[in-house]
Amino acid sequence: MIRRLLPWVTVVGVATVSLVFLAWLIVAQQIEERALAWADARRAEGYAIAWQALDVGGFPFRFELAFAEPRIGRNGWTAEAPRLGANYRPWRPDRIDLAAPRLALTGPEIASSLEQAVGEVRLGGGQATQVAIEGVAATARIRTDDLGRADRARLVVDGFSPTTTGLQAGTLSGSMSLWGARPTPTVAEQLLFPDPFDLAATGAIKGPLTDLAGWRDAGGTLDLSRVVLVWGPMKLDGDATLALDGQMRLLGAGTAKFQGLNPVLDRLVAKGQVRPQDATVAKVVLGLLAKPTADGGTEITVPITAQDGRLFLGPAAIATLRPIVGARP
Question: What digits encode the pLDDT tens for the residues 315-325?
Answer without folding.
Answer: 767 677 878 76
